[in-house]
Amino acid sequence: MRYHAIAEAAAEGGWVVAVPAVKGAVTQGEDWADAEFMARDLIATLFDVPADTVEVDLTEVGSGGVDSVVEAWHAKVAV
After folding, report:
1. Given its phi and psi angles, is residue 65 left (phi above 0), alpha (psi -120 to 50 degrees) or beta?
2. Considering the entire predicted model, what is its pTM?
3. Average pLDDT over residues 28-55
């Protein structure tokens, strides 16, 4: 199971991560590796599957809050 996730640098440090294909799926990580792990763990928890069966393609996007991060992702995909 593979999902695309998008990450935005948080003002207080770390990363805010959203999985646009799953409404409301937002998490955070202390660093890039943690952000990727947290995204995999979030998806695994939501779909009740082992985390090692989940792959995440994590992409950095600009700032502006989680809503703008998701909007930016949808705009990128639509192009």
Report:
1. left
2. 0.79
3. 96
